[in-house]
Amino acid sequence: MGLQIKKNKDYQPKRARRSSKNNKQQGYTLKYMLIGGLIIFSIVLFWIVYINQYVQISRKNLRIETLQEERQSLKRDKLYLQLQISRLQSLNRIEEVAKDELNMVKPQEVNYLALEGDKEQEDFEQDEFQSESQSLNFRERLTTLIKGLTQVEAGSLD
């Protein structure tokens, strides 16, 4: 009747051998894929950490630059303010303000009158003045000196 296919006994074991060989190869490829995946993951993780550190350093450098610019600006402002202070404290400006805004006038001439008197009286007053000045301490001397310098003699408004 028809052809009969003879079953080959050797055929079955070859197939089994092939499938076990395929299983081993699949096991090896799976191991290699896992190892390769871990290596790639490690490299990617390393690059992410590296880029993150680079970004952080860049941010810190930018902050340093802005702080340095701000410092320079503050230094310029300080110099400008010191110049303003010097200008406002100058004696010429004070004199101008006194004349223009306060209507003060410089005295034309200061006259001192010396009265002729008893020579003994003058000597007594000199001795009394010297004894008083010797009894004053340094602070009192300095205070009287400053008071004497800061007193202003007003002139007449002509």
Mean pLDDT: 76
The total tally of domains equals 2
**Strand and helix order:** HHHH
Number of helices: 4
Question: Which stretches are low in confidence, meaning pLDDT under 50 for 5 or more residues running?
Answer: none
Q: What fraction of residues sit in β-strands? A: under 5%
The termini sit apart by 156 Å
Helical content band: over 70%
Features:
158 residues; mainly alpha; 2 domains; 4 helices
Notes on the protein architecture:
This protein is an all-alpha fold and 158 residues long. The chain folds into two domains: 101 residues; 39 residues, no CATH class. It is 75% helix and 0% strand. It has four helices and no strands. It is rod-shaped. The termini are far apart. The mean pLDDT is 76.
Summarize the structure.
By secondary structure, the protein is mainly α.
Secondary-structure map:
Blueprint: H1 11-89, H2 91-100, H3 119-135, H4 138-150
